[in-house]
Protein backbone atom coordinates (compact mmCIF):
# COMPACT_ATOMS: atom_id res chain seq x y z
CA UNK A 1 0.00 0.00 0.00
CA UNK A 2 1.24 3.49 -0.74
CA UNK A 3 2.48 5.65 2.10
CA UNK A 4 -0.11 8.39 1.48
CA UNK A 5 -3.03 5.94 1.66
CA UNK A 6 -1.98 4.78 5.11
CA UNK A 7 -1.51 8.33 6.28
CA UNK A 8 -4.92 9.34 4.99
CA UNK A 9 -6.36 6.50 7.06
CA UNK A 10 -4.33 7.83 10.06
CA UNK A 11 -5.57 8.48 13.61
CA UNK A 12 -9.33 8.08 13.61
CA UNK A 13 -12.30 7.64 15.90
CA UNK A 14 -14.33 9.96 18.09
CA UNK A 15 -12.60 11.17 21.22
CA UNK A 16 -14.13 10.18 24.52
CA UNK A 17 -15.35 13.50 25.94
CA UNK A 18 -18.17 14.70 28.15
CA UNK A 19 -19.23 16.11 31.46
CA UNK A 20 -16.74 15.89 34.32
CA UNK A 21 -14.33 13.61 32.56
CA UNK A 22 -10.61 14.07 32.66
CA UNK A 23 -9.02 13.27 29.35
CA UNK A 24 -5.36 12.46 28.72
CA UNK A 25 -3.53 11.83 25.47
CA UNK A 26 -0.25 9.92 25.12
CA UNK A 27 1.79 8.60 22.22
CA UNK A 28 3.67 5.34 21.73
CA UNK A 29 7.42 5.16 21.97
CA UNK A 30 9.85 2.84 20.24
CA UNK A 31 12.89 1.68 22.19
CA UNK A 32 16.29 2.00 20.54
CA UNK A 33 17.88 0.26 23.52
CA UNK A 34 15.25 -2.21 24.66
CA UNK A 35 13.63 -3.04 27.96
CA UNK A 36 13.39 -6.82 28.12
CA UNK A 37 13.13 -8.56 31.47
CA UNK A 38 11.94 -7.56 34.93
CA UNK A 39 14.00 -8.01 38.07
CA UNK A 40 10.79 -7.40 40.05
CA UNK A 41 7.48 -8.40 38.47
CA UNK A 42 5.19 -6.70 40.95
CA UNK A 43 6.96 -3.35 40.92
CA UNK A 44 7.82 -3.60 37.19
CA UNK A 45 11.52 -2.98 37.77
CA UNK A 46 13.67 -3.79 34.73
CA UNK A 47 17.12 -5.35 34.65
CA UNK A 48 18.48 -2.57 32.44
CA UNK A 49 18.03 1.07 31.54
CA UNK A 50 16.33 1.61 28.18
CA UNK A 51 16.17 4.46 25.69
CA UNK A 52 13.36 5.37 23.30
CA UNK A 53 11.88 7.89 20.90
CA UNK A 54 8.29 9.00 21.49
CA UNK A 55 6.35 9.15 18.22
CA UNK A 56 3.85 11.64 16.80
CA UNK A 57 1.48 8.95 15.47
CA UNK A 58 -1.04 6.51 16.95
CA UNK A 59 -2.05 8.45 20.09
CA UNK A 60 -4.18 6.90 22.80
CA UNK A 61 -6.91 9.09 24.27
CA UNK A 62 -8.26 8.02 27.65
CA UNK A 63 -10.97 9.55 29.78
CA UNK A 64 -11.54 8.75 33.43
CA UNK A 65 -14.49 9.79 35.55
CA UNK A 66 -15.45 8.79 39.08
CA UNK A 67 -18.51 6.59 39.56
CA UNK A 68 -19.11 6.84 43.35
CA UNK A 69 -22.27 4.73 43.25
CA UNK A 70 -20.72 1.89 41.24
CA UNK A 71 -19.48 -1.34 42.80
CA UNK A 72 -16.87 -2.00 40.14
CA UNK A 73 -14.85 -0.19 37.48
CA UNK A 74 -16.17 0.08 33.94
CA UNK A 75 -13.53 -0.07 31.22
CA UNK A 76 -14.35 0.56 27.57
CA UNK A 77 -11.63 -0.03 25.00
CA UNK A 78 -12.12 1.16 21.46
CA UNK A 79 -15.87 1.20 21.96
CA UNK A 80 -16.24 -2.29 23.49
CA UNK A 81 -16.18 -3.40 27.14
CA UNK A 82 -12.68 -4.60 28.11
CA UNK A 83 -12.51 -8.21 29.23
CA UNK A 84 -10.06 -10.77 30.57
CA UNK A 85 -6.44 -9.77 31.01
CA UNK A 86 -6.94 -6.24 29.65
CA UNK A 87 -9.69 -5.50 32.17
CA UNK A 88 -7.67 -7.10 34.98
CA UNK A 89 -4.63 -4.95 34.23
CA UNK A 90 -6.58 -1.69 34.12
CA UNK A 91 -8.50 -2.50 37.30
CA UNK A 92 -5.31 -3.52 39.13
CA UNK A 93 -3.77 -0.23 38.06
CA UNK A 94 -6.79 1.74 39.33
CA UNK A 95 -6.54 -0.19 42.62
CA UNK A 96 -2.95 0.99 42.98
CA UNK A 97 -4.00 4.60 42.28
CA UNK A 98 -6.84 4.34 44.82
CA UNK A 99 -4.58 2.81 47.43
CA UNK A 100 -2.05 5.64 47.03
CA UNK A 101 -4.76 8.31 47.03
CA UNK A 102 -6.65 6.79 50.00
CA UNK A 103 -9.83 6.76 47.93
CA UNK A 104 -12.43 4.09 47.25
CA UNK A 105 -14.63 5.33 44.37
CA UNK A 106 -14.75 3.20 41.27
CA UNK A 107 -14.19 4.75 37.87
CA UNK A 108 -15.43 4.71 34.31
CA UNK A 109 -12.52 4.51 31.87
CA UNK A 110 -12.95 5.02 28.14
CA UNK A 111 -9.85 4.52 26.04
CA UNK A 112 -9.35 4.85 22.29
CA UNK A 113 -6.28 3.56 20.55
CA UNK A 114 -5.37 4.48 17.02
CA UNK A 115 -2.91 1.61 16.64
CA UNK A 116 -3.81 -2.08 16.32
CA UNK A 117 -3.72 -3.49 19.88
CA UNK A 118 -1.09 -6.18 20.49
CA UNK A 119 0.64 -5.76 17.14
CA UNK A 120 4.06 -4.82 18.47
CA UNK A 121 3.52 -1.11 18.08
CA UNK A 122 3.39 -0.51 21.81
CA UNK A 123 -0.23 0.42 22.53
CA UNK A 124 0.36 -0.52 26.18
CA UNK A 125 2.95 2.29 26.45
CA UNK A 126 0.62 5.04 25.23
CA UNK A 127 -2.31 3.34 26.97
CA UNK A 128 -0.86 3.25 30.47
CA UNK A 129 0.79 6.67 30.12
CA UNK A 130 -2.59 8.20 29.26
CA UNK A 131 -4.39 6.20 31.97
CA UNK A 132 -1.80 7.12 34.60
CA UNK A 133 -2.16 10.82 33.84
CA UNK A 134 -5.97 10.87 33.70
CA UNK A 135 -6.36 8.64 36.78
CA UNK A 136 -3.75 10.55 38.82
CA UNK A 137 -5.55 13.81 38.03
CA UNK A 138 -8.99 12.42 38.87
CA UNK A 139 -7.94 10.78 42.15
CA UNK A 140 -5.73 13.66 43.25
CA UNK A 141 -2.28 12.08 42.97
CA UNK A 142 0.72 14.20 41.91
CA UNK A 143 0.93 14.65 38.15
CA UNK A 144 4.46 16.03 37.98
CA UNK A 145 6.29 14.10 35.27
CA UNK A 146 8.66 12.00 37.38
CA UNK A 147 5.90 10.82 39.73
CA UNK A 148 3.75 10.11 36.72
CA UNK A 149 6.47 8.13 34.99
CA UNK A 150 6.91 5.95 38.08
CA UNK A 151 3.16 5.40 38.26
CA UNK A 152 2.78 4.62 34.53
CA UNK A 153 5.62 2.08 34.88
CA UNK A 154 3.44 0.00 37.21
CA UNK A 155 0.87 -0.38 34.41
CA UNK A 156 3.38 -1.30 31.71
CA UNK A 157 7.12 -0.77 31.86
CA UNK A 158 7.44 1.01 28.53
CA UNK A 159 4.66 3.43 29.57
CA UNK A 160 7.16 5.10 31.93
CA UNK A 161 8.84 6.49 28.79
CA UNK A 162 5.66 7.67 26.98
CA UNK A 163 5.12 10.29 29.70
CA UNK A 164 7.81 12.31 27.89
CA UNK A 165 8.31 13.47 24.31
CA UNK A 166 11.34 12.98 22.06
CA UNK A 167 14.30 10.86 23.18
CA UNK A 168 13.78 9.42 26.64
CA UNK A 169 15.82 7.27 29.00
CA UNK A 170 14.22 5.00 31.61
CA UNK A 171 16.51 4.42 34.59
CA UNK A 172 16.20 0.91 35.98
CA UNK A 173 17.27 2.30 39.36
CA UNK A 174 20.00 0.85 41.58
CA UNK A 175 19.33 -2.69 42.83
CA UNK A 176 20.18 -1.65 46.38
CA UNK A 177 17.97 1.47 46.39
CA UNK A 178 16.15 1.98 49.69
CA UNK A 179 12.93 2.60 47.77
CA UNK A 180 13.37 0.83 44.40
CA UNK A 181 9.87 1.85 43.29
CA UNK A 182 10.84 5.53 43.60
CA UNK A 183 14.23 5.03 41.92
CA UNK A 184 12.95 3.68 38.61
CA UNK A 185 11.56 6.39 36.30
CA UNK A 186 12.08 7.87 32.88
CA UNK A 187 13.25 11.33 31.91
CA UNK A 188 13.74 13.19 28.64
CA UNK A 189 17.21 13.38 27.10
CA UNK A 190 17.44 17.11 26.66
CA UNK A 191 20.84 16.85 25.02
CA UNK A 192 19.89 14.59 22.06
CA UNK A 193 20.60 16.49 18.87
CA UNK A 194 19.17 14.29 16.15
CA UNK A 195 16.24 15.04 13.87
CA UNK A 196 15.17 11.44 13.38
CA UNK A 197 12.16 9.70 11.88
CA UNK A 198 10.86 6.17 12.41
CA UNK A 199 9.23 4.47 9.48
CA UNK A 200 6.86 1.81 10.85
CA UNK A 201 6.51 -1.16 8.53
CA UNK A 202 3.27 -2.84 9.60
CA UNK A 203 3.34 -6.42 8.42
CA UNK A 204 0.60 -8.02 10.42
CA UNK A 205 -1.97 -6.30 12.61
CA UNK A 206 -3.34 -9.37 14.41
CA UNK A 207 -2.90 -9.95 18.14
CA UNK A 208 0.34 -11.67 19.17
CA UNK A 209 0.54 -15.33 20.18
CA UNK A 210 2.65 -14.74 23.31
CA UNK A 211 2.27 -11.50 25.30
CA UNK A 212 5.47 -9.54 25.82
CA UNK A 213 4.94 -9.93 29.55
CA UNK A 214 5.01 -13.74 29.32
CA UNK A 215 7.79 -13.73 26.72
CA UNK A 216 9.97 -11.58 28.96
CA UNK A 217 9.34 -13.82 31.94
CA UNK A 218 10.29 -16.89 29.90
CA UNK A 219 13.44 -15.24 28.57
CA UNK A 220 14.63 -14.25 32.05
CA UNK A 221 13.85 -17.70 33.49
CA UNK A 222 15.16 -19.95 30.73
CA UNK A 223 17.32 -18.22 28.11
CA UNK A 224 21.06 -18.91 28.48
CA UNK A 225 21.60 -15.79 26.38
CA UNK A 226 19.77 -13.43 28.73
CA UNK A 227 22.80 -12.47 30.90
CA UNK A 228 24.84 -11.71 27.80
CA UNK A 229 22.02 -9.52 26.45
CA UNK A 230 21.83 -7.60 29.74
CA UNK A 231 25.57 -6.89 29.66
CA UNK A 232 25.48 -5.83 25.99
CA UNK A 233 22.46 -3.63 26.57
CA UNK A 234 24.16 -1.75 29.40
CA UNK A 235 27.12 -0.97 27.15
CA UNK A 236 24.77 -0.04 24.29
CA UNK A 237 22.98 2.50 26.44
CA UNK A 238 26.13 4.32 27.46
CA UNK A 239 27.40 4.45 23.88
CA UNK A 240 24.05 5.51 22.49
CA UNK A 241 23.69 8.41 24.91
CA UNK A 242 27.10 9.69 23.82
CA UNK A 243 26.18 9.27 20.13
CA UNK A 244 22.89 11.14 20.63
CA UNK A 245 24.76 14.00 22.28
CA UNK A 246 27.19 14.07 19.38
CA UNK A 247 24.38 14.02 16.80
CA UNK A 248 25.83 10.81 15.33
CA UNK A 249 22.83 9.04 13.77
CA UNK A 250 24.95 6.34 12.16
CA UNK A 251 26.25 5.15 15.53
CA UNK A 252 22.80 5.44 17.12
CA UNK A 253 21.25 3.39 14.30
CA UNK A 254 23.93 0.70 14.39
CA UNK A 255 23.56 0.26 18.14
CA UNK A 256 19.75 0.19 17.90
CA UNK A 257 19.72 -2.52 15.23
CA UNK A 258 22.20 -4.75 17.08
CA UNK A 259 20.38 -4.23 20.37
CA UNK A 260 17.06 -5.34 18.87
CA UNK A 261 18.64 -8.37 17.21
CA UNK A 262 20.29 -9.29 20.51
CA UNK A 263 16.94 -9.10 22.29
CA UNK A 264 15.31 -11.37 19.71
CA UNK A 265 18.24 -13.80 19.89
CA UNK A 266 17.83 -13.97 23.67
CA UNK A 267 14.13 -14.74 23.43
CA UNK A 268 14.62 -17.28 20.65
CA UNK A 269 17.02 -19.13 22.97
CA UNK A 270 14.32 -19.37 25.65
CA UNK A 271 12.51 -22.61 26.36
CA UNK A 272 10.10 -22.92 24.71
CA UNK A 273 11.46 -20.37 22.24
CA UNK A 274 9.67 -17.09 21.59
CA UNK A 275 9.69 -16.05 17.97
CA UNK A 276 7.98 -12.85 16.89
CA UNK A 277 9.85 -12.30 13.65
CA UNK A 278 8.38 -13.79 10.49
CA UNK A 279 9.58 -14.29 6.92
CA UNK A 280 8.03 -10.90 6.14
CA UNK A 281 10.13 -9.34 8.94
CA UNK A 282 13.25 -10.90 7.39
CA UNK A 283 12.31 -9.46 3.99
CA UNK A 284 11.86 -6.01 5.55
CA UNK A 285 15.23 -6.33 7.31
CA UNK A 286 16.82 -7.27 4.00
CA UNK A 287 15.35 -4.13 2.43
CA UNK A 288 16.83 -2.01 5.22
CA UNK A 289 20.25 -3.57 4.54
CA UNK A 290 19.84 -2.85 0.82
CA UNK A 291 19.09 0.79 1.59
CA UNK A 292 22.31 0.99 3.61
CA UNK A 293 24.32 -0.57 0.82
CA UNK A 294 22.95 2.17 -1.44
CA UNK A 295 24.23 4.76 1.02
CA UNK A 296 20.94 5.66 2.73
CA UNK A 297 21.19 5.82 6.54
CA UNK A 298 18.46 3.37 7.69
CA UNK A 299 18.49 0.97 10.67
CA UNK A 300 15.89 -1.54 11.83
CA UNK A 301 14.39 -2.26 15.21
CA UNK A 302 11.73 -4.85 16.14
CA UNK A 303 9.66 -5.35 19.27
CA UNK A 304 7.25 -8.03 20.45
CA UNK A 305 5.72 -8.58 17.04
CA UNK A 306 6.66 -9.04 13.38
CA UNK A 307 6.66 -5.35 12.46
CA UNK A 308 9.88 -3.58 11.61
CA UNK A 309 10.54 0.04 12.50
CA UNK A 310 13.19 1.85 10.50
CA UNK A 311 15.19 4.65 12.06
CA UNK A 312 16.50 7.30 9.66
CA UNK A 313 17.15 11.01 9.39
CA UNK A 314 13.92 13.00 9.13
CA UNK A 315 15.13 14.29 5.76
CA UNK A 316 15.32 10.70 4.40
CA UNK A 317 11.94 9.56 5.74
CA UNK A 318 9.92 9.74 2.52
CA UNK A 319 12.57 7.92 0.53
CA UNK A 320 12.92 5.18 3.15
CA UNK A 321 9.13 4.88 3.42
CA UNK A 322 8.70 4.54 -0.34
CA UNK A 323 11.25 1.71 -0.43
CA UNK A 324 9.84 -0.08 2.62
CA UNK A 325 6.38 0.06 0.99
CA UNK A 326 7.74 -2.33 -1.66
CA UNK A 327 7.93 -5.15 0.94
CA UNK A 328 5.02 -7.48 0.07
CA UNK A 329 2.07 -7.03 2.45
CA UNK A 330 3.61 -3.98 4.15
CA UNK A 331 1.73 -0.88 5.23
CA UNK A 332 4.06 1.98 5.98
CA UNK A 333 3.58 4.86 8.41
CA UNK A 334 6.08 7.69 8.82
CA UNK A 335 6.50 8.84 12.40
CA UNK A 336 8.59 11.66 13.79
CA UNK A 337 9.47 12.91 17.25
CA UNK A 338 6.25 13.17 19.25
CA UNK A 339 5.12 14.92 22.44
CA UNK A 340 4.77 13.75 26.01
CA UNK A 341 1.48 12.92 27.70
CA UNK A 342 -0.95 15.82 28.09
CA UNK A 343 -4.08 16.40 30.06
CA UNK A 344 -7.26 18.34 29.53
CA UNK A 345 -10.19 18.66 31.89
CA UNK A 346 -13.66 18.98 30.44
CA UNK A 347 -17.06 19.67 31.88
CA UNK A 348 -17.78 20.21 35.57
C1 LIG B 1 9.83 -5.16 23.24
O1 LIG B 1 6.27 -2.43 28.37
O2 LIG B 1 4.83 -3.95 26.98
O3 LIG B 1 8.56 -3.18 23.43
O4 LIG B 1 6.12 -4.05 31.35
O5 LIG B 1 5.29 -6.31 30.80
O6 LIG B 1 3.91 -4.30 30.22
P1 LIG B 1 5.31 -4.88 30.40
O7 LIG B 1 6.02 -4.87 29.00
P2 LIG B 1 6.03 -3.79 27.82
O8 LIG B 1 7.31 -4.31 27.04
C2 LIG B 1 7.87 -3.64 26.00
C3 LIG B 1 8.98 -4.44 25.43
C4 LIG B 1 9.51 -3.95 24.10
C5 LIG B 1 10.80 -3.18 24.30
C6 LIG B 1 10.68 -1.77 24.85
O9 LIG B 1 9.66 -1.09 24.61
O10 LIG B 1 11.64 -1.34 25.50
TrEMBL record:
Stretches for region Disordered: 1-20
Biased composition (Low complexity): 8-20
TM region(s), chain numbering: none
GO molecular function: diphosphomevalonate decarboxylase activity
Domain of life where this protein originates: Bacteria
Family: Belongs to the diphosphomevalonate decarboxylase family.
EC numbers on record: 4.1.1.33
Name of the gene this protein is made from: mvaD
Protein name, per record: diphosphomevalonate decarboxylase
Species this chain originates from: Streptomyces millisiae
Gene3D superfamilies on file: 3.30.230.10, GHMP kinase, C-terminal domain (3.30.70.890)
Domain named Diphosphomevalonate decarboxylase-like N-terminal: residues: 26-175
Domain Mvd1 C-terminal: 201-325
One Pfam family hit: MDD_C
Keyword Lyase: yes
Matches recorded under InterPro entries: GHMP_kinase_C_sf, Mev_decarb, Mev_diP_decarb, MVD-like_N, Mvd1_C, Ribosomal_Su5_D2-typ_SF, Ribsml_uS5_D2-typ_fold_subgr
Keywords from the UniProt entry: ATP-binding, Lipid biosynthesis, Lipid metabolism, Lyase, Nucleotide-binding
Amino acid sequence: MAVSEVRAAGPAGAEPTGEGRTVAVAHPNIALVKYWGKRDERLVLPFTDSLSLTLDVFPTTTSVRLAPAAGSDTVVMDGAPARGEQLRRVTAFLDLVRERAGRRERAVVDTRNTVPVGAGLASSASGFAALALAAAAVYGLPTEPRALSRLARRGSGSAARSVFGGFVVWHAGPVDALDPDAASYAEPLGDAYIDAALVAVVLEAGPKAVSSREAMRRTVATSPRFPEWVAASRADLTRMRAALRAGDLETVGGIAERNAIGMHAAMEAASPPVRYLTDASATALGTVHELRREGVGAWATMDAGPNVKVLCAAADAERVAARMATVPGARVVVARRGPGATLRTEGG
